[in-house]
Amino acid sequence: MIPLVPDIAHFLAGLLVLLSFVQLYQSRLPPLISIFAAQSLALATFVAWQAQIQHAPHLVITAGITLIFKVMIIPLALHGLIRSLKIHRTVETVVGIGPAMMTGMALVGLSMALMMRTSAAVDVVVREDIAFALSVVLLGLLMMVTRRNAVSQAIGFMSLENGLVLAGTGAKGMPLVVEISVAFSVLIAFIVVGIFIFRIRERFDTVDIAVLDRFRGERP
Amino acid sequence: MNMLLSPAADMLLIPIAAAALLAAIPFYRLSAWINVLASLATFVAALALLVWPTVPTGHLIQVDDLNIVFLLLNALIGFTASLFGKSYLAHELETGRLLPAHLRFYHAVYQILMCMMNLALLTSVAGLMWVAIEIATLATVLMVGIYRTHEALEAAWKYFILGSVGIALALFGTILVYLAAQASVGAGLAAMSWSTLTSHAAHFDPAMLNIAFVFLLLGYGTKAGLVPLHAWLPDAHAEGPTPVSAILSGLLLNLAIYAILRFKIVLTASHATIAAGPMMMTLGLVSVLVAALMLYRRRDIKRFFAYSSIEHIGIIAFAFGLGGPLANFAGLLHMTMHSLTKSGIFFTVGHIVSIKHTQKIAHIGGLTISHPRLGWLFVACIAAIAGLPPFGVFTSEFLVVSSAFMQNPLLAAVLVIGLLISLGALFLRLNDIAFGEPKGSLTPNKMSYFPELVHLALVLAAGIFIPSQLASWFQHAAKLLG
Amino acid sequence: MLVMQIAQTVLAVAVAPLLTGMVRKVKARLQYRTGPSVFQPYRDLSRLFTKETVVAHNASWLFCAAPTFVFAATWVAAAQVPTISFDVALSPAAELIALFGILTSARFALALAGLDIGTSFGGIGSSREVMIASIAEPAILMLIFVLALVAGSTRLTDIAFFVASPSVGLRISLLLAFVGLAMIAIAESGRIPVDNPATHLELTMVHEAMVLEYSGRHLALIELAAALKLLFYVSLISAVFVPWGIAPSGGTFVQYIIAMTLYLFKLAVAAATLAFFEISIAKMRVFRVPHFIGAALMLVLLAALLRLVSQSF
């Protein structure tokens, strides 16, 4: 089954995009966390598969980190977190699933259009994997922008990071992938610990600094 | 043994060893001294780098004309900021805003930050630079949130989230650059090192490089605080300890600019790509104008100077975007001058705030009467940052504007308008703070003015006379930028 | 082959109530109930057929004709899906567009019948049904488009044959289409979370509201049609996405037996999956339904987009 070899990688990359869309659609927190875990599982499988077909045993470490950290520890921690913050029943008033999904579609279209314009010198399959990775990154960003809850923003960031790992491992022979994924895991651990310690329920408005200025007494 | 003798390696080894030591030592007076000494040793190593720019074997670090400017500036301000931090934090300890345990943490993280900034500047590998900048960001987040007040935590969190997104985008850009390089250079570490990237850039896929640069500019531009990606910057400056504000403005913003410049060099080496310059120029000009207008509405002294930093980073980005030997020279000079002046200003502001126990401009006044030395020092600082002669900022701003007039008079006019608007705001606030009836607490200042005097002296010296060696050195670096 | 066509047609109407029964049974077991036997729908149907049929005074001929038409149309559609053999007499006619057209006409008739008597429930049911249809149909058309792009034909037997061939590989557009079709199927066959066939709650019911006035023989036909519709979607999904085991043209008797067993097995798996899905999810409020189907539309649109961009998706 030789033709299936790149297909499986491709399929898993596409699965990540699909799960990003499901995250965008899901407005309740517990299922959102589970979907994130599923996405990370797909990513771990993808990385392990890349380790196999690129003959790069060090990628197994990245796969292992993803599996242990993002499929098991982080989702469990987040489930505990939302229960202790008593936000596990909240249904987010999302900007509107319709517009969000539409924007998501446009972003996927954009990343495809961008990547398809790059030259054929790069392997076609790799290029399309990168296009998928870009889609996951942009969808993660979209999620961070549309959600008001700190936990779902963190999930948005982590799914963005999944896209980055997808890109990094999809690029053949990329050096420092393991180091980068470790550095990113530290970042994510910080976010989760930050939410937990500081009991951040709502996001701090990252776009509208006018609100903060008023809060700071900068406005009379 | 050979590796220990290399000044480049020492610039990494001294801070990391100091960080380990500082984390282990519970006595805060001793650790403050160790912090200063370690920073001084790093500075000495940086000076030694000028004499022996040798690099240990292996290809992970490199020293060239460009990064040595940044390294020297980094080590110098790292040293003065540690000196200032020693007296400032002792004062914070007295007033009870910080505990000894916080200080131990602060000193260790300070050295980690220094190490990571040096690593980001020294490394020859794009991926390693990214990792270093990421850890440096984490370190500054921890330092910004050290007061544990609601506002400080909020500022730290905002900085963290925005910085993380920026960093994530930058990583994606880095991966794309690798992909573009991998097709012609082949897989492995070579496809990420600056020298290979620059020498082979002509064979890279231009479309891929274009997309990559957009991501890199957005990502590292967030770290540099370019408008509209600047939301984190004023809060982080205002709520963190003052030495950290000085480091943020004086060094971390430069680091982000350095990262953008490195990739810009790669992009210019490939002829088929879009010009990176206009994008940087647009972001730079927008930053100058927006920050200049925002200055009028600031009522918090540290936030005020944070916006001033945005403005100057805008000028620097504009100068580098303009390109050409003169503009690059001007950009480098302005970056150096701004780093020195702005960190000096934050030191001075630190004195003012610790005397007056407030950051509200409305509660500070008549400094030249109540504290003549501090007041006139502050006046000199404002004059320097406003770009008045004979200070060095005047020289660099003059060069930026004149090179802009040579290449594009219309944009130069916009830049001048932005500079004049900010000038008005600076003098308005200067009038409130330095002159008139003294307001607030009148306790004398016990801290030393040495750090900011060093900075001001350097800026003044650069304004009066630039040694020909220094000029040729900057010209080399400018040439590297294309 | 005419024989196979007849066999498939009979099989459809014979196993449709069984599928409904299996879903109910599995659901009951998952909720720690014993539940009625899987053959209970047959008993219900036979009981309804023997009961008196009551028709409202102001009912027009449409009201009486609709059940028969709905049943016939759904049966025709369900019988066309290749379940045990690729080579059936009507396979050239098994165009996806035609099949969905037939189903839509059945829906049209039922919506009219719901309005015919003039009760408020019938009106609510019809309006909700039409609202769902107005979003589901673009999604279905887009789905047909994707399948046609992948397989190069809109004929169901061709698509199934293409997917069964080894050359197709793993296709992300097929995955997206699969998820989209599953969501459409849930919405169209009136299952949780879009509609609940087991309750008569005025706030939420859609299909049950339309058919509230029916009784006896009419109701039996409508119930059977509903079961056939569920069977249609399950068979469609299994024919398009898991076509393995369907006997090729000129198959031997053993192959038909295997195909038949596999088909029943697929039905059982589908019933279990559907039941599990239904107990793990809550019924949606009616105004959220457009989001659900909208999401399906987006997924299928995405599949089309990817497929248009590159052949390897």
Written description of the protein model:
- The complex is a heterotrimer of chains A (220), B (482) and C (313).
- With 220 residues, chain A is an all-alpha fold.
- Chain A has eight helices and no strands.
- The radius of gyration of chain A is 18 Å and the shape is globular.
- Chain B has 482 residues and is mainly α.
- Chain B has a domain of 207 residues.
- Helices cover 79% and strands 0% of the residues of chain B.
- Chain B has 20 helices and no strands.
- In chain B, helix 4 runs antiparallel to helix 19, helix 6 packs antiparallel against helix 7 and helix 14 crosses helix 20.
- The longest helix of chain B has 36 residues.
- Chain B is globular, with a radius of gyration of 21 Å.
- By secondary structure, chain C is an all-alpha fold.
- Chain C has one domain.
- Chain C is 69% helix and 0% strand.
- In chain C, helix 1 runs parallel beside helix 10, helix 4 runs antiparallel to helix 5 and helix 7 packs antiparallel against helix 9.
- The relative contact order of chain C is 0.17.
- At the A-B interface, helix 5, helix 6 and helix 7 of A face helix 6, helix 7, helix 9 and helix 10 of B.
